[in-house]
Amino acid sequence: MEGRGATILILAAFLAACGGLESRWGGTMSDSAGVTVVSNTDVGIWVAGDEWAFEEELRIGAVEGPPEYQFGSVSRIAVDSKGRIFVLDGQAQHIQVYSPDGIYEQTVGARGGGPGELQAGLALLMGLGDTLLVPDGRSLRINRYAPDGSSAGSFRMVLEEGRPMSYKASTSGTIAEQIRPLSMFMPDEPNETPMDAIVLLGTDGTVTDTLLKFPSGASLSAQGFTLYAAEPAWDFTDEGHLVFGAPDEYRIGSYAGGQLQRIISMPFERKPVADRDREAIHSEMERRWDEGGVAPEARARIWSRIHFADYFPAFQAVAVGPRGTIWVGRVKPASELSAKELEYYHEWPVHEWDIFDAQGRFLGTMTMPERFNPMVFRGDKIYGAWRDELDVGYVVVLRILGDLGAGAT
After folding, report:
1. Between 324 and which of 124, 337, 347, 358 could a Cys-Cys bridge form, CB atoms 3.0 to 4.6 Å apart?
2. Please, what is the Cα angle at 85 between 60 and 169, to 5 degrees?
3. How far apart are CA 185 and CA 50, in angstroms?
4. Nearest CA-CA partner of 333 in 308, 357, 355, 356
5. Of 343, 344, 367, whose CA–CA distance to 355 is shortest?
């Protein structure tokens, strides 16, 4: 079921021009060629008392104490069907497992190149039957672990199809991967527009379906890394419905069965990436290089491969939340980040999220706790990594408070 992501922006512009019926929530909604267009204003429909809020439900970690509750770096989080929490420590290259109440249960894997070992874990994916899959960017394989934590073998990454850009897993255990063509990383410019693909993976690594193909983003290519490039963002539901956005405009497409069903738009004014934003990141890099004793020639070589987009993208991330809501993460310019936030700019934590109901109507905006990086949305809970003022890492579970049916049905 191959989609039509390459035409989403053209189609969106055409349909938006068709107009629609005014509604009491302040936006417009129209329908043409079987595609519903929802044009929102920048004022949400939540009224006083309906707004959602966050409450911290669980915190795992400690400054001192048993090593099982200490993290070098919380890189990825996964949750199984029983609510157990799996944490990939990017520094230790192992996975620590906790009960739904945060009690340590076991450690899975270890640093190394042997069976069940990891060298550079890229993602933590809970597959069908609570089979855990961990792509390893250095070993170029995907490790599998049984529900009891034992190694279930591995399989080779199929790099002939392209370079993995991101992985996601639904609550039901379906796994999807975004692949970028290798031509993007070749010195010569490709003759044709390179197209990324979002595909579904079986637990043996085989591609079982293609959800969408779309023009590749520019954040990572043969020329290096481009900060603030308009990189496509996406997520998908247990039913296989895809939510996709190309953030050069504030437009989100909702797909079912490979067909575009709905377009959600918001007002968006393009803002240029200013010199102060470039200088903020450059200063932070220099600070790190000073701490690490990086030689001047190495600094110049690294900096020559880092570029900046001319404009900030409309958004940074897309996630499917409770009751079919769509969460769209805003971009915060580097010049507006605190000194502590700048230390982790490379992780791009998203703090402000615009929330839309299942029909695409804008509900309002929620702000995550400071220094919190959301990683997994499951029902009314958000699992993520948080750092305290001393730079100690924790796993934190937030519960969404409020009537989850308000405006979301």
Report:
1. 358
2. 135
3. 48
4. 308
5. 367
